[in-house]
Design brief:
Layout: E1 3-6, E2 21-27, E3 32-40, E4 46-47, E5 50-53, H1 59-79, E6 85-92, H2 102-114, E7 119-120, H3 129-135, H4 143-149, H5 158-179, E8 188-192, H6 198-207, E9 211-215, H7 219-229, E10 232-233, E11 246-249, E12 268-269, H8 282-288, E13 292-293, H9 296-299, H10 302-308, H11 314-338, H12 342-354
Bound molecules: nicotinamide-adenine-dinucleotide (NAD).
The site of nicotinamide-adenine-dinucleotide (NAD) has 25 residues, from α5.
Length: 355
């Protein structure tokens, strides 16, 4: 087998940020290349998904992606109170494919063994549970094997359901902070995207008395929202400008940018989408407009809590996910006290926990 491992020196890379270890695994015979980045393991072994992506322009793109994502996992795990570090894998995909070849997953399994348990991985963009079953033929360091060993199964709903609960508790904290209200009675929400996270989230919001305006590019989903929760439906272009109290981005990232900022009428932004701010300076722009922003990686951590808490019951998971609301309240109050953005305070709290 021509599988080789190397530890490239990436200290000059702009996204390096003192990564502990970066492994490059390569098998030229089968066209396999993967980067595994371990950012920081002070709190415990690293956790973070494995992405398969065939559209990297070049190696540097893949490296930038894996470094940024693994650092993000360090902060997300720390802020969620998990005793795990941050890591991530990127498999450089074969052009025109969406999922990895089985031989790639076996090669990845050997690469995970090379790290000796410092990192365990699982599903992310482009990878499925069945892919990790293949890796699991040669390694123990995939989540599906940990579940098997613990005699546990994925609870119905899985990560998106717990992400939804986390966003719900985060929204409750933000509403309490901004409007002084304990329930969501008559609070107006604009929800962008009605996918695996937003559907259970809307159900929770509605049950708490919320009034919903929604959009999705899939008309069957907006129809469902109309029927189940009496939601008003608008187009994706209009959603961010709705006269509502809370904007809930649950589609893709990058909604908050200089052109969309003046349109926002909501006083709270709290949703599941990753990378909601198109650039970091948007955090200050929101603060200056008096808009309370729930940092994305703080509010959407319910899924990762579900992923790492192997074998936890639904009740245990809900208890842990409820802490997202407590953490967000701490972030909002401290940001106000220290005259900083909520994004800055989230990073500070994560770093305080790690060091
Ligand atoms: P999903 O793919 O199930 O849902 C996304 C929904 O957004 C779909 O219904 C899609 O039709 C809709 N959509 C896409 N583009 C749109 C647009 N321009 N306007 C309106 N609607 C649009 O994804 P999900 O699992 O529900 O995740 C939603 C977001 O939350 C993503 O940004 C994801 O990265 C993030 N997130 C998800 C989890 C999780 O556990 N699934 C965890 C953390 C973060």
């Amino acid at each position: 087998m021509a599988l080789t491992f190397s530890y490239p020196d990436l200290s000059g890379h702009p996204a390096y940020d003192n990564h502990e270890k970066i492994l490059c695994a390569e098998d030229l015979d089968i066209g396999f290349k993967a980067y595994i980045a371990l950012h920081n393991t002070r709190l415990g072994p690293a956790r973070g998904g494995c992405r398969y992506w065939a559209n990297y322009e070049n190696d540097n793109d893949a490296i930038g992606d894996v470094l940024r994502l693994s650092k993000g996992m360090t902060f997300k795990n720390a802020l969620a109170g998990l005793n795990y570090g941050g890591g991530k894998t990127v498999i450089v995909g074969t052009k025109g494919t969406k999922n990895p070849d089985p031989a790639f997953m076996e090669a990845l399994g050997h690469a995970l063994n090379e790290l000796g348990g410092a990192y365990e991985t699982g599903e992310d963009v482009g990878t499925r549970t069945e892919d990790f079953r293949i890796a699991g033929h040669v390694t123990d360091y995939v989540r599906v094997k940990s579940l098997e060993k613990a005699g546990a199964k994925d609870l119905a709903g899985g990560p998106p359901l717990y992400t939804a609960f986390g966003v719900y508790y985060g929204i409750k904290a933000a509403v309490k902070f901004k409007f002084g209200q304990d329930t969501l009675q008559d609070i107006r929400f604009a929800v962008k995207g009605l996918g695996n996270v937003a559907a259970p989230l809307c159900k929770l919001l509605y049950a708490d008395g919320a009034m919903l305006t929604v959009c999705d590019i899939d008309p069957s989903k907006t129809k469902m929202a109309q029927e189940l929760w009496g939601a008003k439906v608008v187009s994706p272009d209009e959603i961010i400008a709705q006269a509502v109290d809370v904007y809930v981005p649950c589609a893709l990232g990058g909604d908050i940018h200089p052109a969309s900022l003046p349109l926002i009428k909501a006083k709270v932004i709290a949703g599941a989408a990753n990378n909601q701010l198109a650039s970091p300076d948007m955090a200050l722009a929101l603060k200056e407009r008096g808009i309370v922003y729930a940092p994305d990686y703080a509010i959407n951590a319910g899924g990762v809590i579900n992923v790492v808490e192997i074998g936890a019951s639904h009740e245990d998971l809900i208890r842990k996910v409820q802490n997202i609301g407590t953490t967000l309240m701490e972030i909002f109050e401290r940001a106000e006290r220290e005259d900083k953005t909520t994004a800055e305070i989230a990073d500070i709290i994560a770093l305080e926990r790690i060091f």
